[in-house]
Amino acid sequence: MSLSSVVGDDVSHRYLDRVTRAVWRGYEHCAITVKETPVANLSPVAHSVGANRLAFASTLLDRFHEAHLQPYEPVVLRAGGIVKLVCPPLVEASRSGSYIMDGMHRVMAARQSQLDTITVTTASADVFPALPTKPPRWSAVEVRTRPRPLNEILPSYCDRNLRPTAAYFASAAFDYESLEALVAACESVAARKG
Q1: Whole-structure pTM value
Q2: Which tens digit of pLDDT belongs to each residue from 83-112?
Q3: Residue 24: which residues within 8 A CB-CB, separation 6 or more?
Q4: What's the number of domains the chain is made of?
Q5: Which has fewest Cβ within 10 Å: 48, 109, 112, 185?
């Protein structure tokens, strides 16, 4: 079910605004929006994706279609006694382009399904600090059955510019014991000033 259907549009948008700003200090003064965005306008930052996670993202995309939801509007999932909030992919938009900071597998699944638009959370600013790595073209993104060794990945990244977005949005911070607990958390975060 969509987050908006559970807590309302206003609380949903304010909640996503607050949690996005909390991810990384670079987002504190950005304009944060949640909106449908053309898939063709989104550029990768990652040079590879995992085949298993891409397959899961394709299955998740199918679930959105079955539930008649816009991919990837914020949704609430129930699994194994846990209520999980799944936020839209996170994109940084500036004069230099729109780059996927979290949700690469989901965006790639949308591209493979030839979707025109998906819902993303966008952090917009005139300029951001340099990306942690030089962005590849989509045609250069490799689908890997095994993860790249860290000694291959880290030399190409600039540590001071890493954004901890993927670790944050995949964390247990978005797992709740019940739907009521999720609603209470959303309302509490949305009510905060800032």
Answers
A1: 0.89
A2: 999 999 999 998 889 999 999 999 999 999
A3: 163, 164, 165
A4: 1
A5: 112
